Amino acid sequence: MADDLSLEGKVALVTGAAQGIGREIASRMAQHGARVILTDVEPELGKEAAATMKGASYRDLDVTSETQWEKAIETLRDEHGRLDILVNNAGISPAANIEQTDLDLWRRVQAINVESVFLGCRTALPLMRESGDGGSIVNLSSIQGLRPAAPLAAYSASKAAVRALTKSVALHAAGDRIRCNSVHPGGVHTRMLDDFAALTGDTDAAITQMNAANPLGRVGQPLDIANGVLYLASDLSVWVTGLELVIDGGSTL
Length: 253
Ligand SMILES: NC(=O)c1ccc[n+]([C@@H]2O[C@H](COP(=O)([O-])OP(=O)(O)OC[C@H]3O[C@@H](n4cnc5c(N)ncnc54)[C@H](O)[C@@H]3O)[C@@H](O)[C@H]2O)c1
What we know:
binds nicotinamide-adenine-dinucleotide, seven-stranded parallel beta sheet, Rossmann fold, 7 strands, alpha/beta, 8 helices
């Protein structure tokens, strides 16, 4: 059994990896020896990020597109012959309560946050299975998937769906030693949190308030989440599947 976080010899694909949490996840996995493919819809940022990581590369992948998923996995098969780790991280969190959410917004949030995870898992599983070495899928949900928030109606619903889908995939793929876990971050300081805080009219004051409200005294940093994902991606968590890993400084307690 593995006794460290080494990802040597493993190939990993991360969605929404051009910035924020996804970028940090890619970076941590590259530091631990994985060959990481960063994907996003922001090629400039994505290429710049990949260039800072050993053995990493960038590829465009709009996670809502079935065709692009199929192409991405086909290219992986041709270039690397395997896929060991898939991190479904891409997401959006527009602030809107139920009455402010029109059908287009609802569908856009579900497409980027949930359909993406469905497409990613379904498309990747056959290649993950081919190596016979098992694998690890990590899906980014949120504490809002466990404790819905009124101003995040579509987002909360999408993240609850990610939680349930993860467990269904975990049961389906366990026979091939492919594990599937969800990660539920609390507020993490990225563009997403800044955008949310900006709605108050004073971003800095809102972040200060969020820091004070957290039991451990601060909002999260991308590294806090990336470290949890690294554990789930590595063989150290080889007997862990269907877990919902809450990383929130105690805010849901
Ligand atoms: N930041 C937080 O407080 C927080 C809290 C809980 C959960 N999360 C989750 O963590 C994940 C990452 O969040 P973040 O804070 O780093 O966000 P972010 O906005 O900083 O980064 C998200 C990335 O996803 C990409 N993306 C958006 N739509 C895409 C699409 N259709 N195809 C491919 N890529 C797309 C963006 O280009 C961006 O690079 C999301 O799933 C989010 O819901 C974040």
